[in-house]
Design a protein that fits this description.
By secondary structure, this protein is α/β, with parallel strands linked by helices. It contains eleven helices and eleven strands. The chain is 28% helix and 16% strand. Helix 9 links the parallel strand 10 and strand 11. It starts with 5 loop residues before the first strand and ends in a 19-residue tail after the last helix.
Length: 319
C-alpha cells in the first residue's frame, strides 16, 4: 500500500493561535485532500485540534512560551510540503527546512509576500497561502459545537485571566468564572468581590479539559474575557462575547465584525501594537476599561433570553 504524502504545518503556540489558524489549516486541507496533514504544536492542544477537524494528527512539540521548538521530533521521510504558520523569521522557517521538505511555504522564504505588522492574524496566513495559489477564506473559522453538555448552560462566562478582570456582573443571571492553569487565586478573587460561591469557579489547578471548556463556552449566554484563547473559542463556536483588549488592538487579533461579538479597546490614537502583549503587568489601555463599559457592551449584544436564578425575580438587564 502506498503511503500518503505528508503536509507538515508548524504552529506551536496556544489555543487562541490554533483557532486563528483554522481558516489557513482548512484551506490546506481542501487544497491537498490526499495528503496526511500533521500539525506541529504542543501536546495539550490535541483535543482542541481534533475539535477543529483540520488535521489528521498532532506532532507534539516542546518549547517555552512562544518560542520556536528547538527541534521538531519528525522521524519519517521528508514531508511533501511544509508550511510555516508560526512566525516570519528564520527560526521557524529553518526548523522546517531542516526536514528537507519537497516544498516549503513561509514568510521568511524567498519569493514570499511582504509581512504586514498591521494585518489581522487570520488574514495574515490566508494571504500567504493565496500567494501560493491556495484559496483561503479568513472567515472560515467556525467549529462544531461539542457533544459534551455544559455544567452551566445559559450562564454568563467570565474568564479573568490574561491580565483582564471584570469586577461587576449582570444581575439576575448565573455567572461562572473560569480559570486556566495557575489562575485559581485570580478567579477566586474575582468571584469573591462579585459575591459568587466558590463552586462557580471552574479550573485553576490545571486547565479545564478542552471538551468541558468548549461545552461551557458553547452553551454560555455570553463570554466576557481578555484577548486570550477563550475569546477565540467563543468566536469559533459563535457564542456572543465581549473581549477586552489592551496591549494589542483588535485590528490584529479581534473577533469578526458581526453583532454577536464586541471588542473593547480604549486607546488614545496609538498604533495597533502599543504595548507588550506578554508583559508582567496589566496594560494601561486595558485598565481604561471600566465595569460599566463591560455591562454596556453586554447590553448591546443580541443575547438569548436570560435564565433566572432560583429564588430571583425577573432578570434585570444592565443599562
Amino acid at each position: 500500500m502506498t503511503e500518503r504524502p505528508t503536509l507538515l504545518v508548524l504552529r506551536a503556540l496556544g489555543l487562541g493561535d490554533l483557532l486563528t489558524g483554522v481558516p489557513a489549516l482548512r484551506a490546506l486541507r481542501r487544497h491537498h485532500p490526499g495528503h496526511e496533514l500533521v500539525l506541529a504544536a504542543p501536546a495539550r492542544l490535541a483535543p482542541a485540534l481534533a475539535a477543529t477537524g483540520t488535521a489528521d494528527r498532532l506532532l507534539a512539540t516542546d518549547a517555552p512560551g512562544r518560542e520556536v521548538p528547538h527541534r521538531l521530533p519528525w522521524d519519517g521521510p521528508p514531508p511533501d510540503l511544509a508550511v510555516d504558520l508560526h512566525g516570519n523569521g528564520p527560526a521557524s522557517r529553518d526548523a522546517l527546512a531542516r526536514l528537507r521538505p519537497a516544498r516549503l511555504i513561509a514568510y521568511a522564504d524567498a519569493g514570499a509576500p511582504r509581512w504586514r505588522d498591521d494585518e489581522h492574524e487570520r488574514e495574515r496566513w490566508c494571504r500567504l497561502l493565496r500567494h501560493h495559489g491556495i484559496g483561503a477564506d479568513a472567515g472560515d473559522l467556525l467549529i462544531a459545537r461539542p457533544a459534551v453538555p455544559s455544567p452551566a448552560p445559559g450562564a454568563v462566562l467570565i474568564h479573568p485571566g490574561a491580565d483582564a478582570a471584570a469586577r461587576q456582573w449582570p444581575l439576575g443571571h448565573r455567572v461562572v468564572v473560569t480559570a486556566g492553569r495557575g489562575e485559581r487565586a485570580l478567579a477566586e478573587g474575582v468571584a469573591c468581590e462579585a459575591g459568587l460561591p466558590s463552586g462557580d469557579v471552574l479550573g485553576g489547578a490545571t486547565d479545564l479539559p478542552f471538551p468541558l471548556l468548549a461545552a461551557l463556552v458553547a452553551e454560555a449566554r455570553a463570554v466576557v474575557c481578555g484577548d486570550t484563547g477563550i475569546a477565540h473559542l467563543a468566536t469559533a463556536l459563535g457564542t456572543p462575547s465581549v473581549t477586552l483588549f489592551g496591549p494589542v488592538s483588535p485590528v490584529l487579533w479581534g473577533p469578526p465584525a458581526v453583532p454577536r461579538h464586541l471588542a473593547l479597546w480604549r486607546h488614545h490614537g496609538e498604533e495597533t501594537r502599543p504595548g507588550d502583549a506578554h508583559g508582567p503587568r496589566p496594560d494601561p489601555r486595558l485598565l481604561r476599561i471600566r465595569p460599566a463599559d463591560v455591562l454596556a457592551a453586554l447590553a448591546e449584544l443580541s443575547l438569548p433570553p436570560p435564565v433566572p436564578l432560583p429564588g430571583c425575580g425577573a432578570p434585570v438587564r444592565p443599562t
